[in-house]
Amino acid sequence: MRTFDISPLLRSSIGFENLNRLVDFASRVDGADSAYPPYNIEKVGDGEYRIQMAVAGFGQDELELVVQENTLVVTGRANAETETGERLFLHRGIAKRAFERRFQLAETIKVTGADYEHGLLNITLVREIPEHKKPRRVEIGTSPVADGRATLMAAE
C-alpha cells in the first residue's frame, strides 16, 4: 500500500491548516517550484513566523517582495551590470540565477517586515486575527427569543 506524505505541501503554506486548500494548491502543475533558493520557515513565537531565504550573491536592490491577496512573491533578478562585468570566473559555485518563489498565506497572516543580512533574506510574518473571528465566551441562560417561540408553540 502506498502512503501519501503531505509534508511537501506544508513547506510553502503558512498560518492555516485547511487541508483542502493545501491539496488544491499542490495539485496545480506549473513546474515552477524548484529547490532554488533554499529557505526555512520557522515559528518564532505565538502567531509569529519567519521565512529565511538563502540568497547569496544578490544585493538588496536585486530582490523584490510583493504581497498580493493571499500570496507572498519573492523575486530575485541579477542586475545586468553585475552579470556582464569584467570578472572572469574559473568556477562559479554560488548560483545567482533569477528566481521567483511563491508562498500561500492564510487570510490572517500579514507580512510585517523584511531584512537582508549576510546573504539571508528574513521575512517577518504575524498572525492578526480580527475581533469578529476571535473566540468569545457566550453566557448560557434563557434567551428572550427562545422563550417567545416556546410560548407561541404552546399556544398553537
Automatic annotation (TrEMBL):
Domain of life: Bacteria
Pfam families hit by this protein: HSP20
Gene3D superfamilies, A to Z: 2.60.40.790
UniProt keyword terms in alphabetical order: Stress response
CDD domains xrefs: ACD_IbpA-B_like
Keyword Ion transport: no
Domain SHSP: 30-143
Family: Belongs to the small heat shock protein (HSP20) family.
Name this polypeptide is given: Molecular chaperone IbpA
Biological source species: Polymorphobacter multimanifer
